[in-house]
Design brief:
It is a single chain. By secondary structure, the chain is of the alpha/beta class. It is built from 9 helices and 14 strands. The strands form 2 sheets. The protein has an 8-stranded mixed beta sheet, with helices on one face. It has a 6-stranded parallel beta sheet with strand order 3-2-1-4-5-6, with helices on both faces. Helix 4 runs parallel beside helix 5, helix 5 runs antiparallel to helix 9 and helix 7 packs across helix 9. The model has no long low-confidence stretch (mean pLDDT 97). The protein binds NADP nicotinamide-adenine-dinucleotide phosphate.
């Protein structure tokens, strides 16, 4: 595979940011795009100098010139189009959450294995240099046994319509799946699966969470997590151990800087991100494709499954159900 040819399926807000970053990554190019709205597809293709554009997702999936498809539709459609692409032996990078529940994620993993097609959830934070540094400091045992994690993701989305992707249950809305997935991911990445979960949601009239507090308990530590569409917040992540702490600057999920604190000593690292930060997940997917992997060793399919199981449990505790959940 000399130059890896990417396709983007669904051309909304995130697709634009992703395409901008993709243009900064070596060894790949954006080759085709598809939107259900032809004019949008054409405009996008002109803007990003893309060879092919389609007014239909299936045509993109069937395009033999394309190696990997980035699924950038709304949550409720991630499963459907990822499944279709994998079944047609296309590699898939799908926006988070990969799918809305455990059973959908399991089916996608089976489909990836059956077709030997690469599948990765686009949890972009995992691949950036800040997180590489965080994991390296933890591996070097710089802060000792971890006792406490505190992370949140919050913004004021109250003016968005009840039909928006944030609040509509038919679009698998709610803060947990949209942004709460990030603090959960941080706790899971650092501490693994908890032994107990307690959570409490404040819900919209449409039945999804507009804010939710989550307490994960481990043998010797706690993670206090939170997500919300109700207000803005600074969003610093704190990882605290017996010997020191690591603080990831605001907004931690996309931050290029973090600080290691050990008593009086502070060590700050500041990275010059390539693009906004989506470039690192693109590079990871490219590397995996070149090596013939069907999953990334950095964010495995099992990691995605573990995370969705946590989200299922939290939704169950708060009776957050989606109308389409029978797959
Ligand atoms: N990684 C990140 O930083 C990040 C940030 C924001 C969002 N996201 C994730 O990215 C995904 C897309 O978010 P977005 O902000 O890009 O959303 P968006 O702009 O509202 O919509 C994305 C695409 O979904 C399709 N779509 C929109 N409304 C639809 C409807 N009612 N029914 C069926 N399809 C519809 C459209 O595809 P067509 O082009 O075909 O019309 C649209 O272009 C979500 O899963 C979200 O969780 C990730």
């Amino acid at each position: 595979m000399e130059v890896i040819r990417w396709g983007i399926l669904g051309l909304g807000n995130i697709a634009h940011k992703f395409a901008t970053d993709l243009s900064k990554v070596n060894g790949c190019k954006l080759y085709g795009v598809a939107s259900s709205r032809e004019q949008v597809a054409e405009k996008f293709a002109v803007e990003f100098n893309v060879k092919k554009f389609y007014n239909n997702y299936q045509k993109l999936i069937l395009d033999k010139e394309i190696d990997i498809i980035y699924v950038a539709t709304l949550n409720q459609d991630h499963y459907k189009y990822s499944f279709e692409a994998l079944s047609n032996k296309k590699a898939v990078l799908c926006e988070k959450p990969l799918a809305i529940n455990k059973s959908q994620v399991q089916n996608l993993i089976k489909c990836s294995k059956k077709n030997s097609s690469f599948l990765m959830e686009a949890l972009w934070t995992r691949f950036n240099p800040t997180f590489k540094q965080l994991l390296s400091w933890l591996k070097e045992d710089m802060i000792g046994p971890i006792r406490y994690i505190n992370a949140s993701f919050s913004f004021n989305g109250l003016k968005r319509s009840i039909d928006s992707r944030l609040f509509n249950p038919h679009k698998a809305g709610g803060s947990l799946l949209d942004i709460g997935i990030y603090p959960l991911f941080l706790a899971y990445l650092v501490l693994g699966k908890p032994k107990d979960i307690k959570s409490n949601a404040i819900k919209t009239s449409s039945g999804v969470d507009k804010q939710i507090g989550i307490l994960l308990s481990y043998e010797n530590s706690h993670a206090v997590l939170y997500s919300s569409f109700s207000h803005n917040e600074e969003m610093i992540a704190r990882i605290c151990g017996e010997k020191g702490e690591i603080y990831i600057d605001s907004r931690w999920h996309e931050s290029p800087s973090l600080t290691l604190v050990r008593g009086e000593k502070r060590l700050k690292r500041n990275f010059n991100f390539k693009g906004k930060g989506y470039s690192y997940e693109i590079e990871e997917a490219n590397n995996c494709l070149r090596k013939g992997y069907i999953q990334s060793p950095l964010w495995t399919q099992k990691n995605t499954l573990d995370l969705v199981v946590l989200m299922d449990e939290i939704r169950e505790q708060n009776k957050i159900l989606y109308p389409m959940e029978n797959t």
